[in-house]
Amino acid sequence: MSEIPHYLREGFITVEELKQFIELPSEERLRKRPVAIPECPQEIPCTPCKEICPTNAVLMENPNAIPIVDYEKCIGCSLCVQICPGLAFFMIHYVGDKARVTMPYELLPVPKVGEEVILLNRVGEEVGKGKVVTVVPREKSKGDTPIITVEMPIELAWDVRAVKVVRE
Amino acid sequence: MRLSEHPILNFQEKRGRKITIYFEGQPIEAYEGETIVMALHAAGIRVLGYTPNKHRPRGLFCAIGKCSSCLMTVNGIPNIRTCITLVEDGMKIERQKGKPKLPPTVKPPKFKEAKKVSGDIVIIGGGPAGLMAAINAADAGAKVILLDENPMLGGQLVKQTHKFFGKREQFAGVRGVKIAEILEEEVRKRENIEIFLETSAIMLLQDGDEKLVVGVRKNKELIEFRGKAVIVATGAMEKMIPFEGNDLPGVYGAGAIQTLMNTYGVKPGDRVLIVGAGNVGLILAYQLIQAGVEVKAIVEAMPKIGGYFVHAAKVRRLGIPTLTRHTILRAEGKEKVERAVVAQIDEKWRPIPGTEKVFDVDVIALAVGLRPSIELLHQAGCQIKYVPELGGHVVIRDSRMETTIKGIFVAGDSAGIEEATTAMLEGKIAGIAAALEIGIASPGWLKEIEKAQKELDEFRAGPFGRKVLEGIKKVVVE
């Protein structure tokens, strides 16, 4: 049983595990502009991210290969986050002592720009609060999925992958 | 309870005129265009009848006309599948007790009075495989008859709110519900496709040079469909697993829950436990969250998640755990599910004492696999083989989807459990191959078959395709 990787036993991937599949972007790159991070470690027949990328930054040898992002070619346009059927693409951007994480959001209510939201990590635990800085609503999304960018303390950038909207 | 708001679907737009039906004499609000059982469930009625001998309560299970768990007496006629029969104003619905008989005043239709409908190719099943078969056969020049026993086209696509995988030309990135709309529109604009909905195929025979499909429309009208070839695209049905209380109303097939909440906007329950972490179970968990239903956990007997990891990750980050190496021990409750008891299992699949967990749930969703619906193929005499990799008994066929009986083709899940994407490709192949065989399609269409075969090979080339390929090796003959 030891050959079954942790992420397939538990249903979430740790950053350490993710590094076995993809190289993470440098701090310098993370500060330059938003960069796409695929959390898609399994070979599945799926190619929309590669097909939609305007700069051919998503590399995939065959339709079942895992996506690898060429961080220098990536312009941070978020189309891969919008289209990914597995909701497995994110964008990260370091700005000062904050990080901005872009993620898909397919629940109701869709948060508004400026709204404070609860930050959830990959196992759904509440790890802090963040502020929504941009929203691409469903009707403007190229992949029929709304995406949001949330500003948060920089140390949470590699943990937070979802948010909870709480309204009175 | 009915859903009003949904992040993906709009039910207000879809609901028809408000009407009244009567359940055991009590008036119930319903909407035109929905099936009987949906209106009953929305009104909180989950017990649909009692078994004849032990009087155990029966509820919904498959919701697509395949399992007989929802049989009720409608306007005096017993054994009506209420999951695929549409409501009508003033309809009288009753639970069955004992073994009901057809009232003497009701005369079943006679064969000699059956309406006759002829075409080149008869396609049974209007899901992704059947729709693609119809479109391609029609484009190749055939007059197509398409039947489905459900009140709408699209098969299981109509309840899939998630975006599909694959390549963009195969609809990747597009939601299943949208794919159903696109394919339906394509089918409806072709004048050489005649559609019969609410029509069950109950027999498939060779009659002289023709194939004869006997159909029953709206539970009463007998129709003979004749063609030179038949494509069976009847899909699959949900598997059941043994555990105490597995027949309690509230133990639903995953697909039934999707039908309730995604097709008809009816809340399936308040708290759900899902059994099975394949793609169906994982996707269902996410869809339940989208519908505002609490999901307690997903239990999976295997030591790892069987579906795509990305589907598991998107529910895990919303706080829903997948408990691998766990199984359901029993469902508890009086007349309906009130609790689920699960336990960890050891290497030999035995529950480990002391690991029991109790979940207060009113719905237990079974997502433990599907088996191909091959009844018509079996009855027609096609050669059958048991192939576990493809979900159970399947037919022997060639690479163009033709069975061991000339002129009978198969496509989609009824040929072996796989994906909607592969069902569409198989449907395309079967549609063209049938049109070629009966001498209607020009040889130029061969190229389209080859193209679809190449796409299938590509889709199945990864680790998730290995099992299916093993299965296909066992059933494909040249």
Number of self-contained structural domains of chain A? 1
Mean pLDDT of chain B: 97
Give the spatial strand order of the biggest sheet of chain A: 1-4-5-8-7-6-9
Q: How is the main sheet of chain B built?
A: 5 strands, mixed
Head-to-tail CA distance between termini of chain A: 46 Å
User: What is the CA-atom radius of gyration of chain B, in angstroms?
Assistant: 22 Å
Query: What structural class do the secondary elements of chain B suggest?
Result: alpha/beta
* The first-level CATH class name of the largest domain in chain B: Alpha Beta
Please list the strands of the largest sheet of chain B in the order they lie side by side: 2-1-7-5-6
Oligomer: heterodimer
How many distinct beta strands of chain B? Answer: 28
User: Uncertain segments of chain A of ≥5 residues (pLDDT<50)?
Assistant: none
How would you explain this protein's 3D organization?
The complex is a heterodimer of chains A (168) and B (478). Chain A is α+β, with helices and mostly antiparallel strands. In chain A, 15% of the residues lie in helices and 30% in strands. Chain A has one domain. In chain A, the strands form two sheets. A seven-stranded antiparallel beta sheet of chain A has the order 1-4-5-8-7-6-9. In chain A, β4 and β5 form a beta hairpin. The radius of gyration of chain B is 22 Å and the shape is globular. Chains A and B meet through α1 and α4 of A and α7 of B.
Topology, please?
The complex is a heterodimer of chains A (168) and B (478).
Chain A: H1 6-10, H2 15-18, H3 27-32, E1 35-38, H4 48-52, E2 58-59, E3 68-69, H5 79-83, E4 89-95, E5 98-104, E6 116-121, E7 126-136, E8 147-153, E9 160-164
Antiparallel strand pairs in A: 1-4, 2-3, 4-5, 5-8, 6-7, 6-9, 7-8
Chain B: H1 11-14, E1 18-23, E2 26-31, H2 36-42, E3 49-50, E4 57-58, E5 71-74, E6 77-81, E7 92-94, E8 115-118, E9 121-124, H3 128-139, E10 144-147, H4 176-188, E11 193-196, E12 199-207, E13 210-217, E14 221-227, E15 229-232, E16 236-238, E17 251-253, H5 254-263, E18 271-275, H6 279-290, E19 294-300, H7 309-316, E20 322-324, E21 326-332, E22 339-344, E23 357-359, E24 363-366, E25 370-372, H8 375-380, E26 384-387, E27 392-395, E28 408-410, H9 420-437, H10 446-459, H11 466-475
Parallel strand pairs in B: 1-7, 8-14, 9-10, 9-15, 10-11, 15-28, 17-24, 18-19, 18-24, 19-20
Antiparallel strand pairs in B: 1-2, 3-4, 5-6, 5-7, 12-13, 13-14, 16-25, 21-22, 22-23, 26-27
